[in-house]
Amino acid sequence: MTVLRTAKLLTLSAARSLRVFEALRRSEWRKNQLLILAYHGVSQDDEHLWDPELFVSPECFATRMQALKDYGCHVLPLNDALEKLWTKTLPPCSVVLTFDDGGCDFYRRAFPILRQFNWPATVYLTSYYSRYNRPVFDVMCSYLLWKGQDRILDTTGLMTQPAMLQLNNSRVRKNAAHAIQVFARESRFSAAQKDDLLSTIAERLEVDYQTILTKRILHLLSAEELTELAAEGVDIELHTHRHYAPKSRECFLAELEENRKAIVQFTKVPHHFSYPHGSYEDHFGEWLGSLEVFSATTCEPGLATNSSDHYKLPRLIDTSSLELVELEGWISGFSKFLPRKRMAVTPHIPPYYYDMNQSHFK
Ligand SMILES: [Zn+2]
Q1: What spacing in Å lies between the alpha carbon of 199 and ligand 1's midpoint?
Q2: Extended strands (E) in the chain
């Protein structure tokens, strides 16, 4: 743990004992602040052990929700909260819950817990792998290598340079996953070919892939699940079709349009967006506005205020490594005054879901 993080945790614990959180959460100042929380996945099995930054366990998620309740938070639907933020009519200690990507685990794990609290939520859906309802290639590739970490992988036909890789080292697994993803992309594999590649990896590592598929681990929400969630009042919003924000206006708009078309099959027209990987450019706001998108959220921690840029709204990503006291610091607003490292934004990531029929991705 870094010195800064240790100092922060000590400060937060002291502030909590001195009831500073309690005073702040009820203050007039906090009333004009909106905490937007972001989750990626809630584990169906052991996903939080594979990637604790991407997944939290159901127990951890339930603890977070209980903390919001204990602090008397008003959990609002996204659209409602933003209208109230912009008209300075938010109730005290306002919070919005958002879920990026639209994993099937939202339906199976997060939603039942949300229903116990009777709280609204927004799913920012990336639609390609929702329609082609098979495992998301890049993440499943990494997950399978982790599952087979006590084995040796023969990479013949999986990457450009064949090798025998001992997978018990996390750096080796990370590099191997990257090399396989690059190989699939450069070979211009279709989604079905990439799916075959995953079966081959599982077979070579003797991982029980059928059980993973049956549990629908690392799958996105199906049409049936989306229909049911929308009927239950979950907001389905934009996150691009292929988890990718192209750099040219024409491609960016095409990507959003395809995402929107997929969403309106299940629910109302979406008007809110979250940036894939949290990566954005200043001109994206104008492009989004031209498509009647009213807001966009980033992955930069903070509380949104009336003066926040509508297309750069801060969001706190809640992960397994976030201590409860850190979340409480943000709920009260106290953490806004603590120094923090700026999030590293990945400058350019190719689309996860490269499809050789989509010629507008060059
Ligand atoms: Zn995402």
Answers
A1: 24
A2: 33-39, 41-42, 55-56, 74-75, 94-101, 122-125, 152-154, 164-166, 235-238, 272-274, 295-297, 304-305, 316-317
Is this model's pTM higher than 0.85 or not? yes
Task: Select from 86, 92, 82 the least CA-distant residue to 28.
Answer: 92
Q: How far is the CA of 19 from the centre of ligand 1 (A)?
A: 36
Buried b (16+ CB within 10 A) or exposed e, 321-358: ebeebbbbbbbbbbbbeeeeeeeeeeeeeebbbbbeeb
Distance 276 CA to ligand 1 centre (A): 5
Distance 100 CA to ligand 1 centre (A): 5
DSSP code for 305:
E
Reduced to 3 states, what is the DSSP secondary structure of residue 100? strand
Cα of 46 vs centre of ligand 1, distance in Å, is 20
- Tell me, in angstroms, the distance from the centre of ligand 1 to residue 21's CA: 31
- The mean pLDDT value for 198-210 works out to 97
pLDDT of residue 345: 46
Range name among 138-152, 194-208, 214-228, 334-348 with the lowest pLDDT average: 334-348
Q: What is the pLDDT of residues 118-136, one digit of tens each?
A: 999 999 999 999 999 999 9
Beta bridge partners of 74: 94
Q: For residue 318, give every residue at least 6 positions away whose Cβ sits within 8 Å of its Cβ, in sequence order, or none.
A: 37, 38, 39, 56, 64, 327
DSSP conformation letters of 246-289: -SSHHHHHHHHHHHHHHHTTTSSPP-EEE-GGG---TTHHHHHH
- Cβ atoms of residues 125 and 98 within 8 Å: no
Residues near ion ligand 1 (CB < 5 Å) are 100-101, 276
